[in-house]
Specification:
Blueprint (H helix, E strand, L loop, with lengths): L13 H27 L10 H11 L1 E5 L2 E3 L2 E3 L1 E4 L6 E5 L8 H12 L11 H14 L4 H12 L2 H12 L4 H14 L3 H10 L3 H7 L1 H13 L2 H16 L1 H4 L7 H12 L7 H14 L8 H9 L3 H18 L1
Parallel strand pairs: 1-5
Antiparallel strand pairs: 2-3, 4-5
Helix pairs in contact: 1-2, 1-3, 1-4, 1-6, 3-4, 5-6, 6-7, 6-8, 7-8, 7-9, 7-10, 10-11, 11-14, 13-14, 13-15, 15-16
Length: about 325
């Protein structure tokens, strides 16, 4: 929307947190838009032959600011652009930005940039068309993997944000979210894994980040090459100790602990016995309630010839029973 904004003064400290965060998101989304539109198709399908380059140049010189509310002609709007100022200025509303979906944010970012390129976007017609090209592109075969792997290579909190945003505009987000949890752990990128874990605590996220994911991580630890093992074990230990910070990804519920113990007990690879015992020590030390150890778990560990684990489980079980007397 172009026009004049009636900006409410932002309380001290509010702009530094919410304002700068919204501005950064706007800029990162614009960066995604430029990169992906450059791959979408021939220039003839863009609003102008040199549209992507023009948009890139604009992004390098424009000023984006966040204000409490943006008012246009007496009505609150999502954002206001000033295409004739130098540099071009865009104001985004802190009261409305958090309420928007990722699809809506991407469409808004495009919409606010178009007037500075001399393009009219009546009723969001052009911006919605461009955003749809991006959504369609990301849902074509392996395209989403290519774009998200690009972000994963940077391995930074901003990369995690980028992957999260792109996940929200693709189909089958559940499958893709799980894929990138696994990929970020596989390449040792804690920054992305933490960012993805922190963004959602809904039942779907808990299911993906719960039992199967924790067991998958343990499996990867047991199979890791020696140079990677120590680093991943250290990260796993830290993650369990700060379960509240990592949300559902590493929560050791009683049901999860029972499955983990049963999984460790049946490991029969002699070369991994020390790793199994190390994992058990971390899990038992991180648990916030006594872990149920069955006689079957102890038997399975002995049958697998992991006598150190069997002894540790039996000792733990004996202490647990004595505490109940």
């Amino acid at each position: 929307m172009a026009g004049r904004a009636e900006n409410v003064v932002i309380p001290q400290g509010h702009e530094a947190f919410g304002g700068s965060g919204a501005v950064l998101e706007f800029q990162l989304i614009l960066k995604d838009v430029i990169r992906i539109l450059g791959k979408v198709g021939p220039a003839e399908e863009m609003p102008t032959p040199d549209f992507v380059n023009q948009l890139k140049t604009l992004s390098e010189h424009m000023q984006v600011v966040a204000v409490e509310r943006t008012i246009l002609d007496g009505h609150e709007v999502d954002a206001i652009n000033y295409p004739h100022e130098s540099p071009v200025r865009i104001e985004i509303s802190l009261s409305r930005w958090p309420l928007m979906s990722e699809q809506a944010r991407m469409t808004l970012v495009i919409h606010e940039a178009l007037p500075a390129l001399g393009l009219t976007d009546l009723d969001y017609h052009l911006s919605m068309d461009l955003a749809q090209k991006i959504f369609s592109f990301l849902n074509e075969g392996p395209r989403w993997k290519e774009e998200m792997e690009y972000s994963l290579k940077e391995c930074s909190p901003a990369s995690g944000e980028a992957i999260y945003r792109l996940l929200q505009v693709t189909h089958q987000a559940r499958e893709k979210r799980e894929y990138f949890f696994r990929r970020s752990y596989e390449v040792g990128c804690a920054a992305v894994l933490e960012k993805l874990s922190l963004r959602e605590t809904n039942p779907l996220a808990q299911e993906i980040e719960g039992q199967s994911y924790l067991l998958w991580m343990i499996e990867r630890l047991l199979k890791s090459p020696r140079p990677e093992y120590s680093e991943k074990l250290s990260y796993f230990k830290d993650a369990l100790q700060f379960q509240n910070d990592f949300n559902a990804s590493f929560v050791l519920s009683p049901e999860v602990e029972v499955r983990v113990v049963a999984y460790l007990a049946v490991q029969n690879d002699l070369q991994r016995f020390d790793r199994v015992v190390a994992l058990w020590k971390i899990i038992s030390a991180s648990s916030r309630s006594p872990i149920w150890i069955s006689q079957q778990d102890i038997y399975e560990a002995s049958y697998s010839w992991n006598l150190n684990l069997a002894q540790a489980l039996e000792s733990y079980r004996a202490r647990w029973w004595s505490s109940q007397e």
